[in-house]
Amino acid sequence: MDIEQILADVIGGNLVLILFAAFIILCVLLGVRIVPQSEKFVVERFGRLKSVLGPGINFIVPFLDRVAHKISILERQLPPMSQDAITSDNVLLQVESSVFYRIIEPEKTVYRIRDVDGAITTTVAGIVRAEIGKMELDEVQSNRSNLITAIQDQLRAQVDDWGIELTRAEILDVNLDAATRAAMLQQLNAERARRAQVTEAEGAKRAVELNAEAELYAAKQIAEARRVEAEAEAYATRVVAEAIKENGIEAAQYQVALKQVESLTALGAGEGKQTVVLPSNALDAFGDAFKMLKGGK
Predict the structure, then answer these.
(1) Would you place residue 245 in the very low, low, confident or very high pLDDT band (cuts 50, 70, 90)?
(2) For every residue of the chain, which 3-state class applies, written as one string?
(3) Residues 164/102, Cβ–Cβ less than 8 Å
């Protein structure tokens, strides 16, 4: 009995040690929390918010504190959402948009809003309808960046109480109803036809201007040629006049005889001219020209 009692005491003591070691290990497991870089843990104590654990090793009170929520702080993209909107000039549009956001204060997100994605989607739809209702169709098409900026500013103000940071909002597409699309296509075709007619008219106008410039240039060249010819004739006349003045009537007779010789030469050089008709005084003209030329030398 003594041996059995001793064995029982030993086993009982070891069991207590084992249970105590197990309790210590359990406390360590429950009290130490390793938070990944991309997450934050929301800790509650008796159902109330106690703290928010950041990335790294954190310690909580075992059996009193518990990690109630594990929130990812990575940037999220909502699925593309589509909503109808009417412009100020009564054109029905279908706007497709997308939103990017990240949670920066998990305690607000957890305890203030149940469905974050649904709330953001509803808010975006309302803002898009309100902003497009202030704009005409042409403004929506040409000022899309202004529309995106207005959506971002208003959405940031709305989601600030939810512990959310809006990183980006995009208008992916703006679609028109079939009737408006057909009318715009017709208008576009008419505008293209008008531009083609304007281009054709401008081309014809330019062609007329170029033709007029060419004619004017030709007229100037002809006038210039005539001026040069007149100056040459005037110069020749002046030379003859000076020769007559210096040599008297002999110089005039020489010029007349020289013209007669040139005319006879041209007449004899023509094609098919086998017979040359000479005036009666042709030989005298040759003789006078020769004499004058000889006398001049």
Answers:
(1) low
(2) CHHHHHHHHHHHHHHHHHHHHHHHHHHHHHHEEEECCCEEEEEEECCEEEEEECCEEEECCCCCEEEEEEEECCCEECCCEEEEEECCCCCEEEEEEEEEEEECCHHHHHHHCCCHHHHHHHHHHHHHHHHHCCCCHHHHHHCHHHHHHHHHHHHHHHHHHHCEEEEEEEEEEEEECHHHHHHHHHHHHHHHHHHHHHHHHHHHHHHHHHHHHHHHHHHHHHHHHHHHHHHHHHHHHHHHHHHHHHHCHHHHHHHHHHHHHHHHHHHHCCCCCCCCCCCCCHHHHHHHHHHHHHHHC
(3) yes
Residue 152 identity: Q
Q: Given pLDDT bands bounded at 50, 70 and 90, which one contains residue 28?
A: confident
Residues contacting 168, CB < 8 A, separation 6+ = 99, 100, 152
Count CB neighbours of 128 within 10 A.
Answer: 25
Q: Is the CB of residue 172 less than 8 Å from the CB of residue 98? A: yes
Instruction: Give the residue from 86, 173, 180 showing the smallest Cα distance to 133.
Output: 86
Asked if the model's pLDDT at residue 44 lies above 90, the reply is yes
Closest CA to 239 of 258, 224, 264: 258
pLDDT digits (tens, 9 = 90+) for 101-157: 999 999 999 998 888 899 999 999 999 899 888 888 888 877 888 888 888 888 888
Report the pLDDT averaged over residues 229-242. Answer: 72
Least confident of 3-7, 100-104, 288-292: 288-292
Q: Which residues contact 215 (CB under 8 A, 6 or more apart)?
A: none
Beta bridge partners of 84: 94
CA torsion angle for 199, 205, 210, 211 (degrees, to 10)?
130
